[in-house]
Amino acid sequence: MSPTLEAVLAEVEGRVSYLRAAPAPPSGDDGWTAGGWIACDRLERSALAAAVAAGAEARGATAPVAASLLSQSYAFKVGAVSLAAYALGLPWPSPAAAGTAVVFGKGRATQLAFRPQQSNADPALGSRPAADGDPVLGADPVLGADPAADGDGDRRGGSLGAPGDADGLAAALIDEHLVGFSALLRAIVRLGERLVAGNAAASAAAAFRAVEGAARDRGDRAERAAVRRRADEFFASGPARRWMGGAGRFETVALGPDGPDGWFWTRSSCCLWYKVPGSSTCDDCSLIPAADLEQRRRDELASSLVTPS
Question: Which of 10, 16, 17, 58 could form a cystine bridge with 106, CB 3.0-4.6 A?
Answer without folding.
Answer: 58
